């Protein structure tokens, strides 16, 4: 049953892909040995084997051959110039056979398979045709399926390594944007594509196996993600509800969160990220990509000591770092992680997207979580409103701005102070902002026209003219201390929130 081909295959590849036949090296070095064909011959006919072939010895009976018979078979195979001798069944080589094989540069393999089945398998590989490609693909799929069933810790790395070894080509995930979950080579977590499965080179076997390997890997990653991040992602819903619930519900939600494993008693620092495309402010990240970003953020913090949660609110993302009260560099470590996340997120959604980041100060308890999230959201939204897409806005740990933001977190406070400035807002955005800045400069200098003029780089008469018009528009008496206090607070709050 001689088969030859000009497209040579190495013995190491055959051994690797014939794993299911328990093919093993009994003696000799398979590295660099080329196999030109495959034959099945009886022990007495091994001298007729073709040079460079892999010859499978067939036995006349079911009994294992004796040591002297194997010695004779080895001598005959060497004399023929065959490259490999395969002995099936439970065979033990004598020292004489090993010595003969080493002198004759003959590799001897053992295998647990019917000679005809093994011959057909090797023939497919050696011929390198459609049958060979199918055989390699089947081997790769079987190997990957076994690796996925094993349920190891780093399933992604294990499956890719097994696939690469089985196909004899590097296989990896290319995390490029724009991959659809329906693509044949898409690797997904659930229905969220994280990239496509690619190989260093394409051949028929790779083309056949790649969609199946991508599917197996996707299911394995989905299971691993659910096992690892399922509880954390379920707590994310509680975080969003806690942040936006009425104040009267905080205590009850905090109890629910604690029961679910959310450490509300710790100190929390929140990062609020707003993704936008500079040339299209109305464009929003598709929900599927928001889910992919959540998973990527969780993967990024999985091995860190702090307690982390990631939540999505519409198309914005919240990343929460929780630690013991008073932990050093709490906000800085949150920023480091989020900046790394932004770098990796560009791979998923594309470099056209920017992520504007607002960082809240570390605050303790359920109320502190709300406070830090409010600071972060206002900082991020202010940067977006000011045209600073992609900026990082940090809330100061101490100072007036923090106090104002705390005050601004109350819907009632915002409503009352916005009502005070409503007459100025009716003038239009530009005139309203100019009026607010002029009024704040005047009130913060105890109604000094000269000092306000220095701040605004205007002539005192110009400041006086503006103040008189503002006073008429607001219909308020600026000499009244209570009025001055309320107006200055409203102006500072307006500028802080818009800054």
TrEMBL record:
One protein family per Pfam: GGDEF_2
Domain CdaR GGDEF-like as annotated: residue spans: 252-381
Top-level taxonomic group: Bacteria
Similarity-based family: Belongs to the CdaR family.
Stated name of the protein: PucR family transcriptional regulator
Cited InterPro entries: CdaR-like_regulators, CdaR_GGDEF, PucR_C-HTH_dom, PucR_C-HTH_sf
Boundaries of every PucR C-terminal helix-turn-helix domain copy: 436-493
Family matches, as PANTHER family: CARBOHYDRATE DIACID REGULATOR (PTHR33744), DNA-BINDING TRANSCRIPTIONAL ACTIVATOR ADER (PTHR33744:SF1)
Transmembrane segments: none
């Amino acid at each position: 049953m001689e088969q030859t081909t000009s497209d040579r295959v190495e013995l190491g590849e055959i051994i690797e892909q014939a794993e299911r036949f328990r093919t093993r090296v009994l003696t000799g070095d398979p590295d660099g040995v080329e196999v030109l064909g495959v034959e099945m011959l009886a022990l007495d006919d091994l001298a007729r084997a073709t040079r460079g072939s892999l010859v499978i010895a067939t036995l006349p009976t079911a009994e294992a051959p004796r040591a002297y018979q194997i010695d004779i078979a080895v001598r005959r195979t060497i004399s023929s110039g065959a490259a490999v001798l395969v002995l099936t069944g439970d065979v033990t080589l004598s020292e004489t056979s090993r010595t003969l094989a080493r002198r004759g540069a003959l590799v001897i393999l053992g295998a647990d398979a019917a000679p005809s089945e093994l011959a057909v398998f090797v023939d497919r590989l050696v011929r390198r045709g459609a049958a060979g490609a199918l055989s390699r693909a089947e081997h790769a799929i079987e190997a990957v399926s076994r690796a996925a069933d094993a349920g190891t810790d780093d399933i992604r790395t294990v499956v890719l390594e097994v696939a690469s070894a089985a196909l004899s080509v590097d296989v990896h995930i290319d995390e490029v944007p724009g991959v659809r979950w329906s693509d044949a080579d898409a690797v997904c977590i659930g229905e969220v594509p994280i990239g496509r499965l690619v190989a260093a080179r394409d051949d028929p076997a790779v083309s056949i196996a790649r969609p199946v390997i991508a599917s197996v890997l996707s299911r394995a990653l989905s299971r691993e993600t659910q096992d690892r991040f399922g509880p954390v992602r379920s707590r994310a819903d509680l975080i969003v509800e806690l942040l936006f619930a009425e104040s009267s519900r905080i205590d009850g939600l905090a109890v629910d969160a604690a029961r679910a494993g959310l450490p509300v008693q710790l100190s929390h620092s929140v990062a609020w990220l707003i993704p936008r495309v500079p040339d299209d402010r109305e464009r929003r990240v598709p929900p599927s990509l928001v889910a992919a970003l959540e998973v990527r953020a969780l993967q990024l913090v999985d091995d860190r000591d702090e307690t982390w949660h990631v939540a999505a609110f519409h198309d914005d993302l919240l990343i929460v770092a929780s630690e013991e009260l008073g932990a050093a560099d709490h906000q800085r470590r949150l920023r480091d992680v989020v900046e790394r996340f932004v770098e990796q997120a560009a791979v998923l959604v594309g470099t056209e997207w920017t992520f504007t980041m607002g960082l809240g100060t570390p605050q303790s308890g359920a109320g502190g979580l709300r406070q830090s999230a409010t600071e972060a959201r206002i900082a991020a939204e202010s940067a977006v409103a000011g045209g600073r897409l992609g900026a990082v806005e940090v809330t100061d740990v101490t100072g007036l701005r923090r106090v104002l933001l705390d005050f601004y977190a109350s819907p009632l406070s915002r409503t009352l102070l916005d009502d005070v400035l409503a007459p100025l807002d009716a003038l239009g955005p530009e005139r309203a902002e100019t009026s607010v800045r002029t009024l704040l400069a005047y009130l913060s200098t105890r109604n000094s026209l000269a000092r306000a003029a220095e701040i605004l780089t205007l002539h005192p008469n110009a400041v006086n003219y503006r103040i008189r018009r503002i006073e008429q528009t607001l219909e308020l008496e600026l000499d009244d201390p209570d009025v001055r206090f309320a107006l200055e607070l409203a102006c500072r709050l307006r500028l802080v929130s818009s800054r």
